[in-house]
Amino acid sequence: MWKKGSSEGSDRFEYLQTLVTEFQDTDSEEAKEQVLANLANFAYDPNNMENLRELQVPDLFLDMLTEENANFVEFGMGGLCNLSMDPECRDVILQSNGISLVTNCLSNQREETVLSAITTLMNLTTTSSHAEITDPAILQCMLRFSLSESPRLRNLAAVFLKDCCNQEQVARAEQQMQGQQTAVGIPLPKD
Amino acid sequence: MAAPGNNISSCWGVPDVYKHHEQKKICISRPKYREGRRDRAVKVYTINLESNYLMIQGVPAIGVMTELIQLCALYGAVEEYRPLDEYPAEEFTEVYLVKFQKLTSARAAKRRMDEKSFYGGVLHVCYVPEHETVEDTRLKLQDRRRYIIRAVRNKAREKEQKEAVNEKPTSSDKATTSETVVARHDKSADPDKTRNTSNICHYSGFPLLPLPPQEYHYYRHENPHGTIPTEDKMGTLHNAIIERVQSSSSYQTSLDKDRETEKRLTLNPSPAAVRFVPRTTHLENRKRRMEEAAEHSLTDVTINNEPLIGPKLPEPPKLDMEDGSLNTTVKLIRNTLKKVESVPDLKPVAKKMKPRRRI
């Protein structure tokens, strides 16, 4: 309810808090999904970043990445993709060991989840996290994605390889891949 | 690595049908407090899903391509378009691919055109990021990151300013340095931003009018802060917003409005110290307050709207786009907007004092 013109950010804070509370309290998977999608969409708006950080929503999203429900994973990953654009949220995610959790989503079956994961990894790249994000395993995964049938996946992986690592690293990863000869590791998403 | 050349050539290639083209089922099980103004599916929007490229389905096959593109041009400069003959279409309809110059335009167009009737058909508009080139994708992400950083920074500055104002409320009233002006603009735009995402308003009494053309971004490059409200308006595409044509007041009037806003803000220092409350009590409080708010909101409406109107258009747009075809588009948009604006204003009380938009 945007009463009083909502110029007071506290209204928004309370609303978001209500969402978080409902998410934690409800036993209904459906309600959880809806609230999670709500929160992830709120994370798209930079005006909410501070509130979401205060409510520890970045951690809530990270928790979702290890859920069994594929919607939880997709929405949580989408929320992280939105949040990680903000440098402060990025730092929070990095501190909560986000890279490995997000990296695991690269092998998710849903394309949308994988795309969010790639974008998030790009957002998470800082001077200190660079080494971890350009791990040869991740680069090889991106190389595979860059050959994908799906143009979105192909493009995004290409952007990653262009912007997040240097060409030497790419070349090395390519060599290693040729050495392996098999497509072990991360399967491509289905849809 | 995919050669960029490949992607460029495939950019306008034979389209595939992707899952995200489908309209998702609307969610009907939301509790009241999470209900939006429009029925929506459970879906998370990310920058990956958005695109300068839109696909418009359901266009009646009666030779109305020009009209369709003119409609699109209301929301921003169209860079390229073509019919997607290969795409499976319903009988007697056509599918079009439209590339907007700016993502913000595509957003506006999608929001305003989707599910709207057009020459007897109902349009379905969706983003088609799979038509992007690698470079398109790259720029899209870069723009988004830059925009977020700028918005967050502005918000922090605005907060500082607000604190400063709270300390000495009168002194700033006279100040007219460009910086304070900018800060006020941001602030006054805030309610609007908030409203965009609030997703929980039940009003529908405002005239539903299209957005002003997004080319304003170009004209206002020299004033980066000025572009924030407009851009942010788009920053939350997935939430229904009720746009109105922002009748442009003169710069001075908008400043006065902002001052009023400022005074109000100063009078009600925001209770920023809200912290966690036990959950059940909190929910009850929330409910009670929402009911109260519903009673008050009717009387509050006029005041609420004031800060939204003025500062969106700090200066009249300049004419020259430095490109013949763009100039033609701009002229077309202006003419159409003039027509649109001649629709009588439904809220004359709130807007009486302001001159109509000059195009």
UniProtKB/TrEMBL annotation, chain A:
Gene3D superfamilies: Leucine-rich Repeat Variant. InterPro entries: ARM-like (IPR011989), ARM-type_fold (IPR016024), ARMC7 (IPR042462). This is Armadillo repeat-containing protein 7. It comes from Eleginops maclovinus.
Automatic annotation (TrEMBL), chain B:
One of its GO terms (molecular function) is RNA binding. GO terms for cellular component: nucleoplasm; spliceosomal complex. GO terms for biological process: mRNA processing; RNA splicing. InterPro entries: RBD_domain_sf (IPR035979), RBM48 (IPR039599), RBM48_RRM (IPR034264). Keywords: mRNA processing, mRNA splicing, RNA-binding, Spliceosome. Residues 158-196 are annotated as: Disordered. The keyword Membrane does not apply. It comes from the Eukaryota. Residues 168-180 have a biased composition (Polar residues). CDD domains: RRM_RBM48. Residues 182-195 have a biased composition (Basic and acidic residues). As a component of the minor spliceosome, involved in the splicing of U12-type introns in pre-mRNAs. Belongs to the RBM48 family. This is RNA-binding protein 48. It comes from Eleginops maclovinus (Patagonian blennie).
